[in-house]
Write a structure and sequence with these properties.
Strand content: under 5%
Shape: flat
Largest sheet: none
Number of helices: 6
Order of helices and strands: HHHHHH
Oligomer: single chain
Structural class: mainly alpha
Helix content: over 70%
Length: about 110
């Protein structure tokens, strides 16, 4: 259920608008609560990854980077077989770094 909320939050944030953006943030809060209850690292990683996506679509670059870094850390260190998830979230981080003009950090990723 947490994953479904995360996915829907990202889709609605991508569509945009105040109402859908607020709704997507509420979904993220519900997903975070569910992830905390389950204690599953995959759910926690997706919650942070979806937060990165929602922040990206709201043009909150610093929040995007922070959430994406947390998600990648969880997927990489605490989840087995989550390379796709880690890579997908990393795209938001790299795009946010580009928007902020943080070229040296982008170069370090190659």
């Amino acid at each position: 259920l947490a994953l479904a909320l995360c996915m829907e939050a990202g889709v609605e944030a991508n569509i945009g608008g105040r109402w859908l953006t607020r709704r997507s943030r509420r979904m993220l809060a519900d997903a975070a609560e569910l992830a905390a209850r389950t204690g599953a690292p995959y759910d926690e990683g997706w919650t942070h990854g979806a937060c990165a996506a929602v922040s990206y679509y709201a043009e909150r670059w610093s929040e995007t980077i922070e959430a994406a870094e947390r998600a990648v850390e969880i997927f990489s260190r605490r989840c087995i077989g989550a390379a796709w998830e880690s890579t997908a979230v990393q795209t938001f981080r790299l795009a946010a770094l580009s928007h902020l003009g943080r070229i040296r950090e982008l170069q370090a990723c190659t």
